[in-house]
Amino acid sequence: MTEMYVLATAGHVDHGKSTLVNALTGMEPDRWAEERKRGLTIDLGFAWTTLPSGRELAFVDVPGHEKFLANMLAGVGPAPIVCLVVAADKGWQAQSSDHRDAITALGITRGLVVITRADLAPESLAATEAQIRAELRGTPLADAPVLTVSATTGDGLDELVATLDAVTAEAPAPDSEARLRLWVDRAFTIKGAGTVVTGTLTAGTLHTGDRLRLVGETSDEVTAVRGLQSRNSSAEVVAPSARVAVNLREVTADDIHRGDALIIDDAWPIVEIIDVRRTMGQLLDEGVHGLMLHIGTAAVPVHMRPFDGDHARLTLERPLPLQVTDRIVLRSPGSRNVFAGVVILDVDPPELNRRGAGTRRALELTDRPETGDILAEVARRGAVERARLVRFGLTIPDAVEGVEGVEEIAGGWLAHRPTLEKWVEDAGTIVKAKLAAEPLAAGVPEKALAEELRRVDPPLPDGGGQDLVAAIASRSGLDTVKGMVRPPGHTAGLGPAEASVAEVERRLAANPFAAPEADDLRELRLGVRELAVAESAGRLLRLGDGVVVSPRTPAQAMRLLAGLDQPFTTSAARKALGTTRRVVIPLLEYLDGRGWTRRIDNTSREVVR
Description:
By secondary structure, this protein is α+β, with helices and mostly antiparallel strands. Helix content is 30%, strand content 28%.
């Protein structure tokens, strides 16, 4: 498969970005007639070319005018490589700074700078390059190559193409196995094909037939990939990095907007509240609360709650698929400049309800690495499923022994060791207390133990399932049998019912087929629960219709039935056993169920030899 790379342009309006893309690709990136008429890029444009190495390079051409900063961010946001353009005859200007700040905020580290219109101001080239170097100092593009070209005369284009080849060669290989998140930049309808969306695929692989979830401004639904195109050519598979057009089933273009995302269902957290750290720009506690969040192609209003100058909580107007390490641009709605760049530290932050909670949260976040803190995530919850943290965007080592205080237990759960030890102690106490209070119980149901552990401090997390509870019980030295947790060797005691059960045993020993009547059982205070415990202990056997006999009664009956002429009737069995129809019918049905006797017809059966 041919390697493809995606590069977004950036730079002040009227500095020759679209002309440069045209010169490199032979394609006109401006898609709208108004753009071509005015000579002003308004929306995103797309073009592509093949480099001398054979690598393919797709361009996302962005508008440079300050009015269209949101469109510019939608183009640069998903791009792994950027080309900052500065015109020789105009030099560094306002939107040059805005676009530089956006690139810095988004954390794009791969790119180059092109000084265009060299033929118009050859005397300014050295000064322009010096100005560029000064403006980029301390940014990800500080050491980027700076080239001088004239798209009109062609001077410098060959060197630019060679540099593009070198930049793409040095770019880290995208992860084709990563989970998919495709930010949509366009949606339209093609006659005979239906809905098509386009975007920059930076990670993951798309296949025809894939089932994807569309998370959007007005929709949240599962759809299917009907077809794929890249560079106007159909494909069964598209790997990153690439510009891709996706033909979708079961959705209409009117329901899809720029900023929507196609994702693998259940692979991403869909979140509305995130905690972030400032990476550049203004301090977060300067009194600004209403901002616009930009990530990928999405632009979403947010409310900011600052914790300090560098940390804050953002509440999004609508949910997005986000992860720890995502870079975000924050912009004031009334401003055309970048307010700040932030990185996501937590996509499932804790509630802050107590006085001083924001200050404490700032302290918690100050030392947290940008890649996430496994111990902090596990400790706050006590235990969490490994798969959940992976969805959050944390990289979890195969073996977590190296993470101090974290231990992996059954079912893929990661537990905070001190909390786990507390739950183990609590489980033993809970089971002991419940069985002391209920001596007839065969044990404590796992669900009941889980509910009790959710009431302790710290509580077992909601969703803490059977595997987690069983692991805690095991570490407490408890057994789990048929969903019941109990101490080893535990058998339910009969307590006050012991004497009554012994009386029934005495009567059945004298006549095994004289099952006590219901009134007898009530007089002996043997209810359903007491009889169930006695049966579990092997003391009695319950047949249908409330008939209670000795566990030895079926074998005793078989010895007598085997002496009858075969087949035999129910009446003959009743006479042989010296009992009543109330007893003989459920007893015979029990023997049938064990395969010891077999029905011949409606009136007779035989002993199975």
